[in-house]
Design goal:
56% of the residues lie in helices and 13% in strands. The protein is α/β, with parallel strands linked by helices. Strands 2-3-1-4-5 form a five-stranded parallel β-sheet, sandwiched between helices. It is globular, with a radius of gyration of 16 Å. The chain binds thymidine-5'-diphosphate (TYD). The site of thymidine-5'-diphosphate has 13 residues, from helix 4.
Length: 209
């Protein structure tokens, strides 16, 4: 495949979406063709799925949650990500499969072998070239979310400190297992410092392809 696939990960409140927009702006002003997307909800069908299970007051079964994230991803990969990569574009996704490993695996406690098979089915083997993990202490993430205002919160945003600590530990285990793909960025620093490091790492990747 000709393009580059970059994903952003982080616990809620890590500031990754701000960083994603800043990175896209820098790359576009350098003349790069960038597709910005997100999970869940990167496609019209995905937005319907997202509404049905994230923005609901229904009691959602953890297995249903796992499979709905996977359904959203299958649509996202085949309808948006793969065609864009085939056209040689840089695709940057706000979350992808590592979120399932961290949230449903480490957070909800699903067996990692099961998580791996669900991911393999949903992605049909498509892996990011680079993943940036915006790392912060869970308490800081919760404080930042509270600052944003409670009316914007979805079902996942209302989890406990303990849940986010497990999710963060799950992400850090991926970093240990795959250090060249999965890079950890200290996201407790200023927006500018984090943006500089982000751009540096991505520029390195793009120079190598
Ligand atoms: P969203 O409002 O898109 O938040 P964010 O800006 O934090 O990405 O909410 C998505 C939520 O879904 C977020 O709490 C992470 C969670 N999530 C999973 O639990 N598993 C997944 O596979 C994905 C993609 C997201």
């Amino acid at each position: 495949m000709k393009g580059s696939f970059i994903t952003f990960e982080g616990i809620d409140g890590s500031g990754k979406t701000t960083q994603l927009n800043k990175l896209a702006e820098s790359l576009r002003s350098a003349g790069r063709d960038v597709l910005l997307t997100c999970e869940p909800g990167g496609t019209p069908l995905g937005r319907e799925i997202r509404k049905a299970f994230l923005e609901t007051k229904q009691d959602v079964e953890p297995l249903a949650e796992l499979l709905l994230f996977a359904a959203d991803r299958a649509q996202h990969v085949e309808h948006l990500i793969r065609p864009a990569l085939q056209a040689g574009r840089i695709v940057i996704s706000d979350r992808y499969a590592d979120a399932t490993t961290a949230y449903q695996g480490a957070g909800r406690g699903f067996d990692l072998k099961l998580i791996e098979s669900v991911i393999a089915i949903a992605t049909n083997g498509l892996k990011p070239d680079l993943t940036l993990f915006f790392d912060i202490e869970p308490q800081l993430g919760i404080d930042r979310m509270a600052f944003r205002g409670e009316n914007k919160m979805n079902r996942m945003d209302q989890e406990s400190l303990d849940f986010y600590a497990r999710v963060r530990a799950g992400y850090l285990r991926i970093a240990d297992a795959e250090p060249s793909r999965f890079r950890v960025i200290d996201a407790s620093r200023s927006v500018e410092e984090v943006a500089d490091e982000t751009l540096g790492i991505v520029t390195e990747l793009l120079a190598s392809v």
